[in-house]
What does this fold into?
Amino acid sequence: MKELDRYRLWLFLTVGMGIATFCVANASPGLTLISLPLWLLAWPASYGKNGKPLPRPLILALVLAATANLIAGVLRTPDDIVAVVAEYLVWLHLVKLYDRSEPRDQGQLLTMSLFLALGACLTSNSFALALMLLVYVPMFVWTLMLHQLHSGRRQAEAGLEELRPADRRRIRPDAAIGLRPQSRFAALVAGVLVFSFIGAAIVFVITPRQSMTTFVADWSSPSVGRVSGFNDEVRLGAAGLLSESNTPVFDLRVTNEEGEDIGQQLGQLRLRGAVLDQYSDGQWRKSAEGARLGTRTAAPGQASIVSGEVEGYPRITQMVTFRGRSGGPLFALYRPLEFETDRAREFRTNFRDASIEIEDSGRSTYRIVSQPD
Amino acid sequence: MIAADPPQGRRRIDLRMGKVSRKYHLGVTGILYVGVTVFLSFGAVNSQNNLLFIAFGLALGGLLVSGVVSGSTLMNIEVERQAPARGVVGEAMVIRYRVKNRGRVFPAFGLTIREVGTGEGKGRRRHGWRSWLSSEPRAFVIMAGPKEIVHAEAAVAPRRRGPLRFETYQVSTRFTFGVVTKSVTWKSTATVLVHPEPLAAPEHVMKSAIALSMDAWGDRPRVGRSDEYLGLREYEPGDSIRQVAWRATARRGELVVREQASPSPRRVWVAVDLAPIRSAEGEARERLEAANERALSLAAGVIDRLAREDAEVGLMIPGSGVRRPPAALGGPTSGRRGQLMDDLARVDLELVDESNGASALGGGRAAWIIVHAGSSKSRLTAPGAAHLRADEREFDEIPAPVEPPPRSRQEEQGAAA
It folds into this structure.
């Protein structure tokens, strides 16, 4: 079976593809420029037939250096632990390629390659990554199945080492092979891939999404799967995956001056609310001025004026009902003129940017009138 | 005493009789795989990342496919062990496995066949294969297509002589992804009689031993009709004119004729003087066992050496019940040589009886070569015998002090009786 003899080449290509996939996901030119040439060089230098593995002390030193780099990376960017660990895996891959290559080592390479691909999935969800994965997954499955045959054959061969050389030559551990192994192997790999993808599609469709989010939220890693939302602080520069949250936050009904619902006409709506106006140390925060807003009390059924009205512009009324929220800014489509709450509560306004904050928590409803500038 | 008889020839397995058990093993790799799959599921649900959902689905699908494909394939596999009847210590012994895939659709990939169990159950302590072999016999089938039969080979080198028993063999596969190991186990006994490794003594020692034993009996070539030249003698009436040696006749001035040697084979007894080990303990016992094994190996080497001399060889191991009169040796594994090697292989040192051993050998028109197990004090003697000692250091030849006795017709007849 020719492909079995080419197993090492397939493993080498799979490892390279895994590294390239992560480089695409991580969008790190530096890592790409270093790792891919090193991977390519491993074939003639060490991994290929004529190559020689590096001395064990040097391998150990390289692993220690990569581990030190991992620790430094975790301390430097604790929120980006997935990318740091995946980068560590890239270095381990490269070191392993320059090490000896027994079936056990090859199995470790394959396992690390799989984890690297998972790291790529956690780092990015770009289209380019999906294309890379489309190539990587069949290649990985092909190599993994070849690995099972290769390691089994090597184990059988290991038993022959105690025989005399003349006897050893007479035994053919790979002689037990039927007809057309190559094509049958390829067909089996194709079948496995098809069934696996069907299984993946079924799982993709039937796995509950929103209902389980809260169940696992408590155990979630802070940097694994960040979800969009509202916060008083925004930190810039952190890498990682940002997932869109589909959880409904509030219900909104938009009407014109005649009381007609115009929500459909407006199409996609963009709301304004909180203003983070101070930037320092890579973070946007609310300024101290914003914190010194005047506090007033809104009475139910009585409109509280926030800013002055400009003649000639339409008045848009928005009815907002929050679903379980603990205070914070109110949102409007345009500059708010006045607002009215369903019950008495304290609020603060900033007349400079026309922002409104309420102190209350829990489900609340308010009506706000805005006017486009 | 001789151990139980081994089976002659290949032994086919009746699958209906053998116990078959099927198992799934979730090893470290499998646990790791399941752990990663669970982790993926949490990661996917928590982050709502579509790629992770697909990765989780692939992991789950892969697990199912791996179990279904290889598990169902293994259900259709039939394996039959074809163990050899005999083996030799130190030489490759090939155990063949006939593998048949009864399935109609799926080919079976990556089947590992290995002997399992120690074979050292109650009352079988001395027959378990693990004490005979340094590694377990293991064969590998890359692929057996639907309805195909392939033969896999496991080669081992026995390190002990005697009846080597195999009891259980297992077919397993980690294909497709190495996550779960599926196995089917058959229970079927086969015994291989392992011959001692022929130990060749130095050629000069062997030559002198053979010559000594032959000379002791005056086993000189006699007149006969072979092609071998024996000598010249005076012409006698009745001699064929073709026998006349004309040059010698011209030199001597009288008719002389050539005499040819007799083609009659040499007859040699090989006796093995084993040291009883029953009463010995500890290191002494181990030393005696090693010396006995070495003596048996040396006896095998002597038999092989005598085969090159075209001698008729007999074997006697006092105290063990082995006594085979001299006869022509056959091929290397069959015939007389095979019988003698079987006898050497079957000797159970535990059962060697000191009291039953003859101390004075002899009789019959044959030479004697006696192989002693280490001790220079010969327990066995025979008129005109050549003595070889096999100890841990080197081979030694013990001078034979006994003069050859005069041969008489009566004595020969008495010995034969």
About this structure: Residues 217-224 of chain A have pLDDT under 50 and may be disordered. Chain A touches chain B through 78 residues (CB under 8 Å). Residues 74 and 81 of chain A are 6 Å apart (CA to CA).
